[in-house]
Input
Amino acid sequence: MHGGSATCVDNNWIKTVECPALSCEVGALATHLKIKGFPPKDNRATAGQKLKFFCPEAYDVEGSEETECLETGQWRDPFPTCSEKCSTPEMPDGLLLTQSGVFYWSKGESVTFKCRGRGYFIEGNEKMECLGNGQWSGVLSTCEKKCQIPTLTENVLIHPPVEGHAVRTGHTITFACRHAWLSIHGNSKIQCLEDGQWNGPPPTCEGSVCGEPPPLENGDTVEINKPEYETNERVEYRCQDRYLIQGGP
Output
């Protein structure tokens, strides 16, 4: 507390020394930081006076956007600073942003990419995050011509498996069947061409079929014969009366 004095003159008190209110000094502002409205007179603010701050469009306010001068002559909160936002990265040919009409991103915000044109796929990260101070996370991606992994029919596998949904041009994938009793019908291998297309369709996996079972003299099959039987399908024989089965048919 700051003191003062008063003098008694003719039965009245006369104030001779006043206690001036403490003021808060407005010091130098951080680079790019601005005060909303008019700054305090003589760069000093009285108790209770508030200051509000802002940064240009390409910058974020780091810290409190408002502070108040206290009776102690101190500011309630320290003055903020301006942190540079991340601007639109320089995009290589064919790479596009999924967001349009945005030029600056604040710390913690992300951008996502896509490729222009059929058959082009992102090589690298599909997303980058603004780390603050104008810096992006990771390395900017590129677009490469690739072949999309074809849709496979039941029981067809790619062996060895491939990662992702597309492969580079020149890459060859090999097919196999899920079960040993199935066989490949069609291309056992296909290659990704320069135009992003495969040099042939993927195969199918089918089981070999058998015709009607061979006849048994003095006997027959237990069930009525079918014109075709799939791999591993079995038939059972039986003999006519007074005959016994010996060996195979």
